[in-house]
Design goal:
Strand content: 15-25%
Radius of gyration: 19 Å
Strand order of the largest sheet: 3-2-1-4-5-7-11
Shape: globular
Largest sheet: 7 strands, parallel
Structural class: alpha/beta
Length: about 300
C-alpha cells in the first residue's frame, strides 16, 4: 500500500511507520519539520511538509495516489489544561482533521480509507459500565472534543472514503505516554493507586494499537468507531499492583485525588475517573491481540 501518516514522529506514529516499512508499504510522513521526521523515521520514509495543520490543508501531493491515510496528529493531552492548552488541544484535532479532509475533497484520485485517531475519552465518566462502540458520548471536555474530532473525520465519507475512527485507550509503551510518567514513582517504591483506585483504565499495549491500525487500513469491512483497548480493562488499583509486581517494588502508597488535581488541574479528571471501554468491534472481526495480559504487557513495556 501507499500510506500517508500524520503525527508520524509520535510514539504511535513511529511504531506504525516501522511496521508499514517492514511489510513493504510506501510511507509518506506529513510533518511540520520534514528534516526531523526523516531523521527519526529513516530514509525509507518520504517526509513532506505540513507547516500548520490548524490553518492550512496538507499539500495535495502528500495525499494524491495514496491508498490510505492514518491521521494521528494532535497536541498532547497529558498536560495542565490552561484555557490556552485546551484551545490548542482542540484545534490541533478538529481543525487539523477538517483541513485534511478538505484537501481530499480537491483530489480526483482520493485515498480509499482514512483511519482517524480518536480516544476512549469519547465515553466520558461512566464508572464500571462496560462500554462498546455503541455507547453514547459523554459530556466532559475530552468527550465533546472527541465528538467534534470524529465529526470532521466522518465528512470524508461524503467523498466515498471509508472512514475508521479508532478510540484508543491508555497506551502502554516503552517510551512516552502515561507509563513513562508513572515509572519513576514506582521504581522508587512510592507508587500506588490513585484516588482510591476503583476507576477503570482502558489500557492497551502499543503493539495492539499498531495491529488495530493495520487491520483498519487493510480490512475493507472495517468502518466507523473501533475501540482500541485490551479485551479486559483494569482498575487503577489492578494496574498499580501489576506494575509494582513487574518492577519488584511495593505499590501500596495511595495518591489522593487532591494531589493529582493540584498537579494537573482539570486534566486530573482523566486520571481520577475512567472508562471501562471494551474492543467489541475488533473482537467481532477476529482480531488476535498480541498482548492481552496486563502483567505481560507491562513487563514488555518496561523492558523486561
Amino acid at each position: 500500500m501507499k500510506v500517508a501518516v500524520t503525527g508520524a514522529t509520535g510514539t504511535i506514529g513511529r511504531a506504525l511507520v516501522a511496521q508499514l516499512v517492514a511489510r513493504g508499504d510506501e510511507v509518506a510522513a506529513l510533518s511540520r519539520d520534514p528534516g526531523r521526521a526523516r531523521s527519526r523515521l529513516g530514509e525509507d520514509v518520504e517526509a513532506l511538509e505540513w507547516r500548520d495543520p490548524t490553518s492550512e490543508p496538507p499539500p495535495a501531493e502528500a495525499l494524491r495516489g495514496r491508498d490510505g491515510v492514518v491521521h494521528l496528529l494532535g497536541e498532547a493531552i497529558a498536560q495542565r489544561w490552561s484555557d490556552e492548552a485546551k484551545r490548542e488541544i482542540r484545534e490541533s484535532r478538529v481543525l487539523g482533521t477538517r483541513n485534511l479532509v478538505d484537501a481530499m475533497r480537491g483530489l480526483e484520485e482520493r485515498p480509499r480509507v482514512l483511519v482517524s485517531q480518536s480516544g476512549a475519552g469519547w465515553y466520558g465518566h461512566r464508572g464500571d459500565e462496560r462500554l462498546d462502540e455503541s455507547a453514547p458520548a459523554g459530556e466532559d471536555f475530552l468527550a465533546q472534543l472527541s465528538v467534534a474530532w470524529e465529526a470532521e473525520a466522518e465528512r470524508a465519507e461524503e467523498l466515498g472514503v471509508r472512514v475508521v475512527r479508532t478510540r484508543t485507550g491508555v497506551v502502554l509503551s516503552p517510551s512516552g505516554g502515561a507509563l513513562e510518567r508513572m515509572l519513576p514513582f514506582f521504581k522508587l517504591g512510592v507508587g500506588g493507586p490513585v484516588a482510591g483506585g476503583r476507576q477503570y483504565v482502558p489500557w492497551v499495549h502499543l503493539d495492539d494499537v499498531v495491529g488495530a491500525l493495520l487491520t483498519s487500513l487493510d480490512d475493507d469491512s472495517v468502518s466507523g468507531p473501533v475501540n482500541v483497548t485490551a479485551p479486559e480493562p483494569a482498575t487503577n488499583r489492578e494496574l498499580s499492583k501489576a506494575l509494582g509486581h513487574v518492577l519488584h517494588r511495593p505499590a501500596f502508597a495511595p495518591v489522593p485525588a487532591l494531589a493529582v488535581r493540584l498537579l494537573y488541574g482539570e486534566m486530573a479528571d482523566v486520571v481520577t475517573t475512567g472508562q471501562r471501554a471494551v474492543p467489541a468491534r475488533l473482537e467481532a472481526l477476529g482480531y488476535r491481540f498480541r498482548r492481552p495480559d496486563l502483567e505481560e504487557a507491562l513487563r514488555d513495556a518496561v523492558g523486561g
